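Class, study these two lines:
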Amino acid sequence: MAQNTVWYFAYGSNMSRAQVKHRAGEPAAEKIARLDNYELNFDKVARGGTGTANIAPADGKTVWGVLYRLTEQQLKALDRFEGVPDHYRRSEVTVSDAEGNRLSAQVYLARKVRKGLKPDRVYLARIIQGAEEHGLPADYLEQLKKIVPA
């Protein structure tokens, strides 16, 4: 692995390769991973009153996503897009890759949440597209496709 790089776990629209490349440049590596005992929700308030992706602890649930190997400089570029520190904060979680290896990864967690929000249709489509692009498990894709947009 390249020196001074970290794994970043994308679970929302940043699963899209094109979006990450546009925001932070080409990742050094990528692979799918899962975060156990968390669930995906859309409780971070976005412009227009819709919800954007966030994760929260939830026993027995799993969030699938994409690990990107990024430099600190690339991660700082993503921080600007994610609105760190006002909208999201960065935290460290332990994920499992397809081979069962446990890895530490950086993740974004919403600072302010509100229940009952729904994602914008275009935003949700980008999340599903990113999940399909990386071949996330079929049952997880089905869960994503069942989410009702705003």
